[in-house]
Amino acid sequence: MASARRSAEERRVRELVAGLTAVDGLVHLRTRFLDRCTTPVEGDLLEPADPHALECGIQATVHFGISGNITDVLPRIRAARIASWGAQTETGQDVPGAGGTVAYALRYHRDRGKYPDGTLMPGPRLESPGLRVDWDRPGMPLPYEVEKPAPCPSGGTGRIYQRCEIVPAAPMSLTAARARYGTVLVFDVLGPDSGDVYFTVARSR
Question: Rounded CA gap, 69 and 102, in Å?
Answer without folding.
Answer: 14
